Structure formats: C-alpha cells, structure tokens
Amino acid sequence: MKGLPINRLQGGRSVHGKASVQISPRKIQFIPGQIFQGKVIHQKANGSLLVTTGGKTFEARTAVSLAEGKSYSFLVRKGAPWIELKVMGNGDSGLVPAGKKWISGQKNRLLFGRLLGELASSQGLKNLKNLLPVLLYQGPAQADALWLSRNVLSSGIFWENKVFRYLLGRVDDPVTAVRENDFKGMLLFLKQEIDGSSLPEPERLVQMGRIDHLLLLLENHQELNLEALRNGWGWYWFLPGGDQSGLLHGELFGRKGEEDDFHHVHMDLFFSRLGGIHADCALRKRSVGLSLQVTDESVGRFLEKNIALLKKAIEKRGLSVTRITCETTKEANVFYPFSREEGGKGLMDVVI
User: Fold this and answer.
1) Based on the structure, what is the number of domains in the chain?
2) Do residues 340 and 350 make contact, with C-beta atoms less than 8 angstroms apart?
3) Which contacts (CB < 8 Å, 24+ apart) does range 297-302 have?
C-alpha cells in the first residue's frame, strides 16, 4: 500500500500546487534503507518541522501532522538530492516485537561490511579472510544465486543447529571444519582466542569490540527470525555489500503463502549508482513472477530495455518466468517488515 504523497518541493512550488519556500538540502547524511529514531521538536502550520536525532537537528517538510515532543522511527527511502523519509504513523506502536528487533539491528547492519573488513585485516585471521567473499557481496557473477545460498548457510544464523547435528553424530565434519565455514562459530572462537592472547591491551579491546558488534547483529537476527517464523510473519535476511561491488546493502523478506507451494519474497536493494530497486517475487514450484519498482527514470528505462536478458538469466536457473514488470514511480512502495499495518499502510512521507 502506498503512503501519503510526498510534499516534494520543485521550483519553489509543492506538488499540491501551493506556493512555498524551497528548502536547501541539509548537510546531515543518511544512507538509503537506514532506520533511525528522531524526535519532533516543533511543527509549523505550513508543514515545516524540526527533528532532532543523535544530537543533530534538521529541518524537514511534510504534508501530515506529527506530534511535537514525540519520537518516531524514520526509514530513509532516498539519500540525494533530497532526503526522503518514511515514518510509522504511531511511532513504534505499530510494530510487533520482531519489528523492534529489526530496527534495533539497523545500525549494526550498516556497519557490518566495515567492521568485518577491519577484523579480517588483522594478523593471524586467515580463515576469516577466506570466508570474506562469501559473507560480503563482491559484484556481479555467473553464480549469484549460488552465492546467496552460500551466504545464508555460512552467515552464522544456523550455528547452533550445526553444532546440534554434530553432537548427534549426523555429520562427518569435525567441529573445527564446521566452525571455519560458519561466521558465528568463527566469531565465538576468535573472541576466546583474542581474550586470552598476548595482544597489547588497546588492540585487544578494539578487536573484542568489533567481534561483540558483529555477534550482536547476528544474534539479533537469529532471535528475530525465530520469533517471526513462530508467529507466521515470515523470515528476514540482509545482504552486506563489498566496497567494489556497487551494492551498498540489500534486504530480503520472505513469507509462505496460504498454499503450501506458494512463496513470496520482497527485496530492497540499494546500489551506489542505480539507487534503490524494490522487487517483489512470487514463487510457485518452478514458476516465478517478478515486479520491479524504481523512482529514477533513467534506471527504469535501463531495466525495461534489459528485461529480456533478465528473463533469460532466470530461466537459466531452471525456472519458468510467468511475468516480469518494471514500474517507475515518484513514490515507491516501501516495505516495512513485521508491521501490524500490512504492506506499509499507515506510513507517512517526509522530505528534508
């Protein structure tokens, strides 16, 4: 469901046709897909409002009324040239507990690639360096679908399950081999090793801090998925990008349909050059239907010209394509997972 129209200023006039003062873009920077808590300090009758977050205050404009003194969870839809935000209409009261876990892990998700790279660059962490191409998206390849499955299996989210199977004697690999191919197992081992090492105290504390940040992210998503699956809300995973991959980050939300053979997957992908691409994928056995949505017209034209290539690439995976559509809109449907308002209903737009 679409939210209320963006009151975006163009040439000194709002999209509603009323004269208005054009607001220059602020120096404050947000990353597309980022979520942050902001408090509304003041809102004027013309829709202009002041919001504070992390000790910084910025001015924004909205066509709706926000309560002064109240905090909201803002989702960054676009970072430039104008910053576009989505805000849950009732603060976080519209989120189930899994949604609150999703928001709390946002900061760590955005830091994941940098923290992992810094940790892997340390001396003596050869095994982690070997796992890096599986954990971080490195760029387009012929086997992206295979990379995705390897990423999920090596991400650490199934570590306890792997250990349980080993203890039951259902796998042949020793614990060491399992650990070296599992991110959480590797982090737990590294934490133990570094804690008892002879590293200088400052370096040891820095390394332990990086490991704790990464473990917090991972365990947050383990809890999130357990709760979401238990309550029928689906499942979630994020895709961290590599420095040279062009992919800043991505998120996947999956849900099983009412029929056993039907599955729905929503993907939000944020690229350094292409911007945000939102995709809805409907899977029924070996058949797939795909809907793409972008807000940049040039990106939309590029995708439309290459739909045949995309269809061919999907069919190479052994799937039958029922449809592929590409839509360019001024207002993309932003998917807000684990919300009581299905499909983003009740979300409002703000422009900085």
Assistant:
1) 2
2) no
3) 297/328, 299/274, 299/275, 299/328, 300/326, 300/327, 300/328, 301/328, 302/274
Q: Are residues 120 and 217 in the same domain?
A: yes
Q: Note whether residue 87 is domain-resident.
A: no
Task: Kindly give, in sequence order, each residue whose CB lies less than 8 Å from that of residue 164, ignoring residues fewer than 6 positions away.
Answer: none
Distance in angstroms (rounded) separating the CA atoms of residues 221 and 227? 10
Residue 270 is which amino acid?
A: F
What's the pLDDT score for residue 110? 74
Same domain, 132 and 249: no
Report phi then psi at 61, rounded to 5.
Answer: -135, 140
| CA pair distance 94, 77, nearest whole angstrom | 19
pLDDT, tens digit, 9 for 90 and up, residues 30-58: 766 677 778 888 887 777 788 888 788 88
Domain interval for residue 259? 235-333
> Residue 320: which H helix or E strand, with range?
strand 320-328
Model confidence band, residue 332 (pLDDT cutoffs 50, 70, 90): low
DSSP string, 223-289: HHHHHHHHTT--EEEEEEBPTTTSEEEEEEEEEE-SSTTEEEEEEEEEETTTEEEEEEEEEETTEEE
CATH number at residue 239: 3.30.750
Are residues 164 and 282 located together in one domain of the fold? Answer: no
Q: Which two tokens stand for residue 177?
A: 């081999």
Could you give the CA distance from residue 207 to residue 30 in angstroms, rounded to a whole number? Answer: 27
DSSP-derived secondary structure for 201-217: HHHHHHHHHHHHHHHHH
**Which residue is associated with the tokens 């839809």?**
77
In a domain, residue 118? The reply is yes
Of 295, 326, 325, whose CA–CA distance to 86 is shortest?
295
- Residues 127 and 204 placed together within one structural domain of the fold: yes
Closest by alpha carbon to 155, among 132, 174, 172, 139? 132
CA dihedral 174, 152, 35, 230 (to 10 degrees): -90
